[in-house]
User: What shape does this take?
Amino acid sequence: MKLLVTGGAGYIGSVCAARLVESGHEVVVVDDLSTGHEDAVPDGVRFVRADVGEAAPALLAEGFDGVLHFAAKSLVGESMQDPGTYWTGNVVTSLRLLDAMREAGTPRLVFSSTAATYGEPERVPIVESAPTRPTNPYGATKLAIDHAITSYADAHGLAAVSLRYFNVAGAYSRFGERHTTETHLIPIVLQVASGTRRSLSIYGDDYPTPDGTCVRDYIHVLDLADAHLLALDHAAEGSHQIYNLGTGTGFSNRAVVQTCREVTGHPIPAEFAPRRAGDPAVLVASADAAAEHLGWKPERTDLHTIITDAWEFTCR
Assistant: This one.
């Protein structure tokens, strides 16, 4: 298939683009490089540096079999301070993309959604039928896009799949996590080990969890990429399917830091800080629907493996 990957110079988009190329697809990446890196675009891929919403009509008019849409603003804290940028950058851009797909007759879409659409869960593991009550503009914009996709599938026959990620980590070959503003625990801990960050704070040690720290579901980025390939194959005309992607198992913040110490051989000093407002004690996905309907099963679920791959990328 000929596929357009938006945001393909970013962390997850670049890994997915690489896997698509390896699977024999023709790939075009469009990215404005506001947070991505041109050297993360895989070899053998045509790269277009442009705003996705502006470039989509002309690009899709060339004829594509599908779009994988990763381009987005994704910092929760920033979304609270500057919501307009998120509603414009995420929702308006996605609507322009959907209209361009409709006009060009592009038949299928795989959308990078998020567990932030659920907000603070009533029950874990979180299933797709759980209430969607996002607690920040980032999650709200992703949920709005999901609603828009549903309406385009109903009205225009779009074949669409949204994949709601939990905590993505690890690396694949030369493709890994490089954020100017880093908010994810594993890369922050590894930055301390590599000497590029001075200190580490763990927020809260009094949660109702086995060791008092938050528990999160970590998914290897390569397992995540493989789910996108399966989603492409299972997208059905006039249908918008939504699947959670996680392992069904959580690891505590203490466990993550300790495993990073073991992998890196660095003591990684850490201090405890007060809880952050809105941090749920446990966020774990139920991926049963993805297993049943997509045939997807994560293979790299060991925390040591995930962190080792991330550390090897950090040391490149």
Remarks:
- The mean pLDDT is 96.
- The chain has ten helices and 14 strands.
- The first helix runs from residue 11 to 22.
